[in-house]
């Protein structure tokens, strides 16, 4: 089987040319994507071929940087739970009003 040279991919609906690369299985957990597509911002295939190596270098640089960085912890999720006062109203959680509420409840 012969290998083809990488070339721009033309989006069928719009005709815009894209750089397109499949993300290897081992790198998918880092980026969470199966495929990378970057617009070459042209519909002209000859012009897209000129921009293609530049996009490929940019994607390779991003992949190397992503592989070097340590895995980050996900951000802390906030919940929608609220603290309610005994009378059913939302209770303040800090400040002067919270102190007054504590005094009233004790």
Q: How would you explain this protein's 3D organization?
A:
It is a single chain. With 106 residues, the protein is α+β, with helices and mostly antiparallel strands. It has a domain at 9-68. 36% of the residues lie in helices and 12% in strands. It is built from three helices and three strands. A three-stranded antiparallel β-sheet has the order 1-2-3. Strand 1 (9-10) and strand 2 form a beta hairpin. The termini are far apart. The model has no long low-confidence stretch (mean pLDDT 78).
Describe the sheet with the most strands: 3 strands, antiparallel
Assign the structural class, choosing from mainly alpha, mainly beta, alpha/beta, alpha+beta, or little secondary structure. Answer: alpha+beta
Order of strands across the biggest sheet? 1-2-3
Low-pLDDT windows of residues: none
The outline comes out as elongated
Strand content: 5-15%
Mean pLDDT rating: 78
- Give me the Rg, rounded: 26 Å
Element order, helices and strands?
EEHEHH
Helical stretch tally: 3
Helix-residue proportion: 25-40%
Number of strands: 3
Ends: how far apart? 81 Å
